[in-house]
Amino acid sequence: MASARPRLAVMTLTDAAVGRVRDLMENADRPLAGLRVGVKKGGCAGMEYTLEGVETPVPGDDVVSAGGVTVYIDPKAVLFLLGSVMDFETTKLRSGFIFQNPNEVSSCGCGESVMLKPAEMPAN
Q1: How far apart are CA 103 and CA 111, in angstroms?
Q2: pLDDT tens sequence across 28-52
Q3: Are 105 and 117 in contact (CB under 8 A)?
Q4: What is the CATH superfamily name and number for domain 11-116?
């Protein structure tokens, strides 16, 4: 019987993102299994990243594990997030998660919304 090929992770997390996810999980008012990342329509550029705490994982979510934390990917967002890097940064003016996403076509000036295209699957 042939073994299944290992799946590539939808996205990767930087050490800073891992640390912030860990902080959020440890300081949540309820036990969390991880953080769910998705995308939704909204903002001036057309789409926004979404983040929410996960108490109980949802079957069908893609799972990214790094540094002892787990990030779940909403199945509707997978094609928009393939190849992305999730980071966390703190500047003088803001702190938050940022995404380096090869599927980003453009973003708005405030940095809160993006225009995304679905990832193109390589031809076999």
Answers
A1: 15
A2: 999 999 999 998 887 666 788 899 9
A3: yes
A4: HesB-like domain (2.60.300.12)
